[in-house]
Every structure is written in C-alpha cells, then in structure tokens.
UniProtKB/TrEMBL annotation:
The keyword NAD does not apply. Residues 56-146 form the GIY-YIG domain. This is GIY-YIG endonuclease. Pfam families: GIY-YIG, NUMOD1. The keyword Thylakoid does not apply. It comes from the Eukaryota. Keywords: Endonuclease, Hydrolase, Mitochondrion, Nuclease. InterPro entries: GIY-YIG_endonuc, GIY-YIG_endonuc_sf, Intron_nuc_1_rpt, NUMOD1.
Amino acid sequence: MLKSFLVSTVKNYHTVVKIGNDNTPKDPLNPKSNYTKVIIEDPYNNREIIARVAKKQKGVYVWETETLDGKSLYVGHSINLYNRICSYFMPSILKTKERRVLRYFNKYGFSKIKLTIYLMDNSVSLEEVVELEQHFIDSLNPNLNVDLVARSSGYHDKMSQEIRARLRKERGTPVFVYDAKDFTLLYIFESKTHMYNTINIHHKTLNDCIDSGLLYLGTFFLSLDQIEESTKTNLLSLDKIKAIVSEKREIHGALLIKHQLEASKAILAEFKDDSRLNREFGSLSSLARELKGDRQVIREYLSGIKSGYYRGKWKFTYLGPKTGGGNILNFNII
C-alpha cells in the first residue's frame, strides 16, 4: 500500500509524494525497481520544489497534460534530474523545436503541465534507470516520445555514432558541454576530474553548474546527460575548447569587474514630484533593497538602456565610487 504525505504548498499547489511501487492500472507494478514517486503540479512555477526533491538524483520523469487535442505524455530519464528537467524551461532548448515534445511545449506552454518524477536510489546504475524508463514507456505509451525504445546514449543515430566513439574511452561519468545559445554539443569530458584538470574549473563551480543548471561563464550548459532534444554537434578538439573557455573567462571576468565597480558607486535617487524625498544610496544593492526593486532593471535605467522615470517616480544618477574603503577588486574566475 502506498504512503502519501504533503511535501510543500507553493503558489497554492499541493505536492504529494508517494513511496514505493505504484500498482494502479495507470502505473503498473514494476517489481524490479524501487522508487519514490513525486507529483508536481505547475512545475514551471514550482521549480523550487523540483530543486528540493530532484537535485543530484537519478530516475525517470513524465510530462503529462490534457488539452482539447487529448492527453499527451512524454517519458525521459536522467542521472541528474533537476538539471535535466529544468533544461526544458530554457528558451534556447525550446526554440530548437527538434523534438515532438519541444514543439508541444512551444505551442501550449507549461501552464497545464503535470510533472511526475520517479526518484531512484543513487546507487543504481544507468542501465537500471533506463530499464525503469522503458517500463513506463511500455505501460504509458507516451505519444510525445518519438522513439519508444529507451536508450542510455541518446536517440539521434547520426549524432550518437560520433559520441559513442568518444564514450568508449570514458573512465568515469562524462560531462557534456553545450553552447547555451543553440544547444550545440561542443565537447565531452571523460569525467569531472578530467574537466578539473583540463580547464582548471573549480569543483564547486562545476558542481553548482551541474546541480543547478547555472551557465558556466554565461556561455556553457554542463550536463551529466546527453541532451536528446538537440541534434546539433560540433565536437571540438581539446585545445580548441580550452582556448574558447579561456577567452570566455576573460570576458566574464571583465563583466564581473564592471558590475562590481558599478555596485560600489554611490547613487542619487531623485523623486519626480518632491525633491525633499531625494535620497543618496551607497550602492546599487542598498538602493534595490530599499525600493524592493530588481537590480538589473535599475542598472538599465542608470546606464541609459531604459529612459524616463523608474516606476514613473524615480530618476537615478551615479555619484562616483564610495570613499573610505580603498578596496582593490581582484577576481579569479574559475
């Protein structure tokens, strides 16, 4: 018998976790695999719940929705569920429209989507994860899956032949490096250790990118899974990927320094109709905090990208750097 309990209530949605194998007609018993079943309504707006339950987790995910065209399902697997699931929300993935499921999301959006996650023990092998995916493909017959055979190395035969040759040499879990603009596969590192030693990425930075889907240097999407929705491949040589990373690191570092310098400047906030309400703030952060505003939007008013008055009331002007600290900016971008 399944146990059920409440995980959280976010934006008025209740998320229920069911423990064990579900032997209802819609979710037949699979005696070979144990899992925890997590059902999340409106996953796009409840990504904090996905993060809570799926970071660093292996398992299977199912997208499900009903429209006037009927019920639609898609089944996938991952050895890093949070990163993989949230990749579907990225505009650069959606705009490729390479797969049926992406064309569906582009047409209908995520507002009526239900996400079911089947969390497996982290000790299971990739083959066991793929076996569970195949079980749900067979039992649910998902209409958004083009290929009804679960695979561990991706769907696209044209791409997988090139990748398989690289993966045969793997000694650990590979790290796939994608260009975030169009999700072109650029490189496959043999393991995290290989990536640490080759491009000098800090282990915390790498884990943050993989676990949370953060873009490395604002350019690269890193994944422990091959992104099947992208058919574009431009595998670079090791020297080439190292050169590109080095170039992006310099650009990214310069941007961070620029933002830090801007953040350290004092700002005059002038109220449109009453100069008595004018205020001086020591930094962009303190201004945004006081007005409960978005720092990037305020920065756009300060730089002239946006014109007029912020919220129709405020005009912002940089006064210059803060005095007294004498701090030297020093960045080591890794």
